[in-house]
Write a structure and sequence with these properties.
The radius of gyration is 21 Å and the shape is globular. A seven-stranded parallel sheet has the order 3-2-1-4-5-6-7, sandwiched between helices. A six-stranded parallel sheet has the order 10-9-8-11-12-13, sandwiched between helices. It has two domains: about 190 residues, 3-Layer(aba) Sandwich (Rossmann fold); about 150 residues, Glycogen Phosphorylase B (Rossmann fold). By secondary structure, it is α/β, with parallel strands linked by helices. The protein is built from 14 helices and 13 strands. Pfam families: Glyco_transf_4 (PF13439), Glycos_transf_1 (PF00534). It comes from Candidatus Komeilibacteria bacterium CG11_big_fil_rev_8_21_14_0_20_36_20. Keywords: Transferase.
């Protein structure tokens, strides 16, 4: 069987989806039994790819995601490849592609949070883009022969939002993501003595304004504490930074993976205030570094994190404040969360994810 896998969003600097695609690629080339022929679709060829098995080929298609070019040129490129199956690892399936495909849907954030605050576009362009998004994701859900959902929550969300019948919903398969094993730090950096940590983007649904407000209240009793937010200083972070003038709140910008362990290993706790997650990889990665996690009790997070996190209501600043006080004051609680986190991450493996996807291709 000839399978095309869309890896145009690739690499750690491309966020969660880039990591997902990279880990799928890294494990697929090791686990595949060589019965399939794979064509890996990249926007541009990465510089540091390992040697590929003979049944793997690379096709470069300079079609940026969410563009008209993607909708018009990509179907033509795929048709020329004559695949038996295409795996779109994101919802952005070209409307004019008529071949068989499966799609991974990570979340329905744009459906559940259709806010201009999450876009850099003006009102008219945002409206047009949102209309097109709805058409594209509806097409992806309805026309796919199979759907991979990254959590039970996301599978149910897809079923509910698109009003799928029980028969239609049978094509959805839950395949969890994995957790990256911590890398050794190249250079040890001494950071602040006491701080909370957040790593991720600053989109509105990440709820960082809420976190910052709660932390500012926390500072009244703990003036020696800091909040460190790690993430690429894009438009959304810059918009947040302009409104904050507190020396105890630090925005680092992008930090490479091989230096992140400095932050994980020295933080008091990791805080994840998100309103909506299809899976919730960042708090799991914090657990992998043996860091206690405070998480919002929202969307997929209780499913994915289980009993290994201390939960708070993401709309109640007082609740988060109380949980911050609790985790700072109670060493036994921190130790308990660390231990539970080490057990929880054993449930998630990139290798296991890739193996299940290979089996899914066969079906």
């Amino acid at each position: 069987m000839k399978i095309v896998i869309d890896l145009r969003i690739f690499g750690l600097e491309s966020g969660g989806l880039g990591r997902y695609n990279q880990k799928l690629f890294e494990n697929l080339i090791v686990l595949d039994d060589r019965n399939n022929q794979y064509i890996l679709l990249f926007k541009e060829k990465p510089d540091d790819l390992p040697p590929l098995p003979d049944n793997f080929k690379i096709k470069v298609c300079n079609c940026h995601w969410y563009t008209l070019k993607e909708q018009i040129i990509l179907p033509f490129v795929l048709s020329k490849l004559k695949p038996d199956l295409v795996h779109f690892t994101h919802f952005n399936v070209p409307l004019f592609y008529k071949g068989k495909f499966i799609v991974t849907i990570h979340d329905l954030i744009m459906s559940r949070f259709p806010s201009r605050g999450a876009s850099t576009l003006n009102r008219v362009l945002f409206f047009l883009k949102y209309r097109l998004y709805n058409q594209i994701i509806k097409h992806a859900v309805k026309k796919s022969i199979k759907i991979i959902a990254v959590s039970k929550f996301t599978a149910q969300d897809i079923k509910d939002y698109f009003k799928l019948s029980e028969q239609e919903a049978k094509k959805i398969k839950v395949i969890y993501e994995g957790v990256t094993i911590p890398q050794a730090t190249e250079t040890k950096i001494d950071l602040l003595e006491r701080f909370f940590l957040y790593i991720g983007n600053a989109y509105p649904h990440k709820n960082l304004k809420f976190l910052i407000k709660a932390f500012q209240e926390f500072l009244k009793k703990h003036p020696d504490f800091y909040l460190i937010l790690v993430g690429n200083k894009d438009y959304f972070y810059q918009r947040l930074i302009k409104k904050i003038s507190n020396k105890n709140i630090i925005f680092t910008g992008f930090v490479p993976d091989n230096q992140l362990s400095n932050y994980y290993q020295q933080a008091t706790a990791y805080i994840f205030p998100s309103l909506y997650e299809g899976f919730g990889l960042p708090p799991l990665e914090a657990m992998a570094y043996n860091l206690p996690v405070l998480s919002s009790k929202a969307a997929s997070l209780p499913e994915v994190l289980g009993q290994a996190a201390l939960y708070f209501d993401p709309g109640d600043e007082r609740d988060l404040l109380n949980k911050m006080e609790l985790i700072v004051d109670d060493q036994n609680l921190r130790d308990k969360l660390k231990s539970a986190g080490q057990e929880q991450i054993k449930k998630y493996s990139w290798q296991k994810m890739a193996q299940k996807i290979i089996e899914f291709y066969r079906k």
